[in-house]
Amino acid sequence: MEKNKIKLPECSLHEIHHDTVMRVGESLPADETTYDLSDFFKLLGDSTRLRILFAIDREPLCVCDIAETLSMTKSAVSHQLKVLRQSDLVRYRREGKNVIYSLADDHVRDIIEKALEHINE
Amino acid sequence: MEKNKIKLPECSLHEIHHDTVMRVGESLPADETTYDLSDFFKLLGDSTRLRILFAIDREPLCVCDIAETLSMTKSAVSHQLKVLRQSDLVRYRREGKNVIYSLADDHVRDIIEKALEHINE
DNA sequence: TTAATAGTTGAACGGTTGTTCAACTGTTTG
DNA sequence: CAAACAGTTGAACAACCGTTCAACTATTAA
Q1: Which domains, and CATH codes, for chain B?
Q2: pLDDT, tens digit (0-9, with 9 covering 90-100), for B15-43
Q3: Which of B 54-83 lie inside 8 A of A, CB atoms?
Q4: Whole-model pTM?
């Protein structure tokens, strides 16, 4: 059973480790940077969004064609496109009844390329 | 109200679009590749895991020091380290009572670097 | 062996998130 | 105008996921 005791920060009595903690702590990126970074990776961390990005990377596509290419409903695709729009990962323009989506950025292509190299060892 | 009717795949009657869908569909990466890729990005899509990676990128650290650096419990850190271990993103070795974690891969550093460039416009 | 420290683990809880459903807006055509 | 097609949206639901908690293992020192 757990004893009733005040919980001190662990390792707090180890002077050597404490220096390490200080040194490493100061060299970490700002919290906001880390959050922005993880938010960005979260966008790519969904297979549906990745497949959308792959598809419109080949050529600009309307929502309808993306949906059919991926065997998904327009609604599901549209929800994801909204997320990608709000993060400026895709561009869009209206053409008559259609809304055409395309990749907004070359960086994203590069990052995906690098990641593909990684998972292929 | 919704009408009762058979739902056909949308855009199915548009021959021009159908060609597009065929062409793009064939050029997409294999499903398994996409899943592996999204799984990889999922790993980076969490600020805790990113901060762990940043920390042990500076220098190899024991779990205790990581926990204190990030102001988290050892348990929470250990759970995330397990995920990173299972994905071969970190290495570890035991040193007496401590288990020292370090970055396993240079690719990851590169990808994070690229992503940082991206979010900084 | 016992106590203390370091680390791991499984279950559970709560928040997040992707898809579905139904309804809506916007555009073109008859 | 109305009908048809393209796309968007909010609510709801289920599945997923990160942290906490309590207990456990492992190593070292007394």
Answers
A1: 46-120 (1.10.10.10)
A2: 558 889 999 999 999 999 999 999 999 99
A3: 54-55, 58-59, 61-62, 64-65, 67-69, 74
A4: 0.90
